[in-house]
Amino acid sequence: MSNTTALVPHLFEGHRIRVSTDQQGEAWIVVADACAALAESPMVWAMASRRDEEHCIHSEEGPGAGGFTLALINEAALLRRLLNSDNPSASRMRRWLTHELLPALQRRHHSTGELPRRSIDAIRRQTAAEVLRGADEIIHLTGVSHAEALLSVLEEIQANSRASGADGQQRVSHRAGVTWLTTDQLADRLDRSLRHTNQRLAAAGLQQRNEDDDWQLTETGRDWGVTQPLCSRGERRQQILWDPAVVALLQQEV
Q1: 18-47 confidence digits (pLDDT tens)
Q2: Cα–Cα distance, 10 to 82 (Å, whole number)
């Protein structure tokens, strides 16, 4: 990997987790710090991971014997580890990583004008990390399994790939940081019944009935919502989650 920057401490539930970034803008986390926050053994992590490109050694010199060397793990590897963990703190660390730490690092790069040149390998790692972040968001919203969440993200990527490059980028940026609403929550914000809200969404051209008589997004609706898996009574179905901005759109339609 490329040289990393100096370690910067970030707080997770009172635990100090030191983080560095490389020349391509990728985050690298001190393994010992993450393990301490999860009350897990670094040796167990080392034995479980086999991918050399996801690990590195960070050294800093100090006066006398004040220098140190630490093992780091990249963001994609940490996310995958947390997704597969049964540790009760793992889901909270995932949320912290995807919704606090990584966005903060990205904002810092933009605010300082640091626009790193990313290699093909770095882009691939970033894509993998974004898929894992998307899966984590789906798990948080719907409670489905890791496999179903990953499948849903890949289906969404495939659907978006049919759009033009510019339109696809617009959709991705439009969705960044959105707190999605179920149709029930949307109805509450509109102070309308669920049936009336679904009718308004259909009248606005955002959704339509499919052959199973379930609501599905139209092409226009993809700019305002996403479909996510929902497990109900043992059956796997799809539900639509809406961007809160659709509230103002429907109010204008009335």
Answers
A1: 998 887 778 889 999 999 999 998 877 766
A2: 18
**pTM for the whole structure:** 0.51
DSSP secondary structure letters along 162-227: TS-HHHHHHHHHHHTT---EEHHHHHHHHT--HHHHHHHHHHTTSEEE-TTS-EEE-TTGGGTEEE
Structure-token pair, residue 12: 């997770």
Domain ranges of the chain: 8-162, 181-253
Burial 232-244 (b: 16+ CB within 10 A, else e): eeeeeebbbbbbe
Q: Quick one: which of 125, 167, 138 has its CA closest to 22?
A: 125
Amino acid type, 213? D
Cα R_g (the chain), whole angstroms: 21
